[in-house]
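Section handout 9: paired folding examples.
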Amino acid sequence: MIGPEYAPMKELHFLRGWYTPCMQHREAALLWSHLNVLTKERYDALIRVYGSLDDAAKHLGEEMLRGLGCRQDTVINAMLRLEEFDAASYQRELEKRHLQFLEWTDERYPSRLREIGDPPPFLYARGDLSILGQPCLGLVGTRNMSGYGKRVAETFVPPVVAAGVVTVSGLAEGIDAAVAEETLRAGGRTVAVLGHGLHMIFPKSNERLADEITKGGGLLLTEFPLRAETGKYTFPARNRIIAGLSLGTVVLEAPEGSGAIITAELALEYGRDVFVVPGQIFDPNYAGSHALLAKGTAMLVTSPTEVLREIGVVAPAEGKTLSSFVPSTPEEKTVFAALTTMPQEIDALVGKTKMDAGRLNAVLTMMELSGGAKNIGGGLWVRT
């Protein structure tokens, strides 16, 4: 593992032009992200040894990367990316593409993703990050979607959206795309997690869908830096983010060995609920789904109501949707943003809104009269 004995490679740094003694923290974070070598474990090691990414950057070189446990091909690729890095031009490209950059320490970093064992140290986002504070549900499945699988997506997504839940998937062909399309059609918002940098959309056929997601208030999210292409390990890595963001994961249609099964297994590892929609026993497109059920760790479901109940979301009555309540004061806007369709105690809302309990109760009461909030008993409040 790395240690202070690895001296700064100052001559190379100044020749390359990427390092200056007064490098700002954001520039250092962008650099490390651009190299695409840090797991959370390696990130923590750098902070532990050097105190900050800025100081760790002063020691960056092949020897350090090998000390971090990087393979030789990874070291070579990282050094090539180091040669081309320019913080100012990289930042300009992020701005041009309307991308937000988050480091692990950023207060905007998704709280649910912090809870998993191997969260990404960096994230890139296009769209509305605030939706990650709402209840999120992963809906995953095969690229080779059948007619039955399509019907399952069409059945499950609208009630989930009506309950104020944000859908999460991967923007691949098949089930992923169907989940995003059905979410938008139902007036909801979705998160598409990508297995590559946000300089492109893969598959290219989903570029228009990606634009519609962000225009509809949704979010494109990836841990990979600009110019990072798809590879053998990028999609399994993407799958852990889907599982990590979500309160639960629903497998809509999955053959054996599919990415959807990987996502479900990761969700179970993270202590999240996993739900499986069954298919015909002779259909290979459901062999993975049925194998998951056979292990006894996932719940068989035949309706979205079962899923919503298990993840603790208070769904609207059948045939109804969430109200079109519009906050009329800054306080109502703050409280409405803090409310979700998952019941919350006053203390939790006090923490989110930074309002005192007395004033918060008064605002909630007025919102309940206007149809924007509901006290469901036991001091628990939900958005309606």
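Moving on to protein 2 of 2.
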Amino acid sequence: MKKIIALVLSAVMALSLVACGGETVESHELKMGHVLGAAHGTKCFASVTAVVEGDKVVAAKIDEYQFMSGDELISVPNAENYAANLAEGVKLVSKRVDTEVYSAKMAAAGSTVAIDKNYDAIEAHVAGKTIAELEAEIAGEMAADAVAGATLVDCAGYIGVVVEAAKAAQAQEAVVYEGSLDALTLKYGLGAAHGTKCFAEVAVLTDGTNVVLAFIDEYQFMSGDELKSVPNAENYAANLAEGVKLVSKRVDTEVYSAKMAAAGSTVAIDKNYDAIQAHVAGKAIADLETEIAGEMAADAVAGATLVDCAGYIGVIVDVAKA
């Protein structure tokens, strides 16, 4: 079943236009997907979100995570608690968050465009193109200047992961957005939604007033041979304490959810995230702020059992307002 996002303003405009014999308001069936991939080399991994309408990419958001050293690094949320999981002096960074430091290293190697601006250029390039068109682009060797405003040699690698995210989106449930796509922005951010052992990654499609779609994942350092870990994990051993891996809770949902079940939980972690995403879709940002201003009831989010539902919604609100 598709979730209908009936924006009050759009509904009023639609009625007015129909009554006057004018055109009806635009209606779009949108889906959001997310994947992790190896877009560039072996020292990092990419996190990519895509919004699609049918076979067309409406918007995409790219970031990468890398282990680096340097006091000037901002690092990811809750970083002060990860020292025991990392080699001495090493930090886990988001290249978007630490764009100044990472871009300075790129500039020293001759680059003239900051890493976040490169990502932005690739996102602008893929928007409005079909999956098939993007696949055709990267099937051969892409020209160095194929993506306007980008200087990264691995543009094809990033576009390839966007294609994967777009295909993942096609498998998700659609929402119906009534209004112009020009009003929408795909935003992305990190936060501390639950405790101090992990950090949350959130993508939000918003028109500035409402959350249209949202995506949640969390990253945590864990130990266990059964863990899948993140892309390029085989190359991170020197950056981590012995036996430790960096995991996405969505990728390693079976292992993490088994630990939750041992503690009494009846809903897998990825299904909890999905329930929160469904809960916020179509709601006004202001209404979500009101929800979490007080103490949320344990059953306030249908299908979710996480005690920190308000924390996850809070990060979604923060990202939507950013």
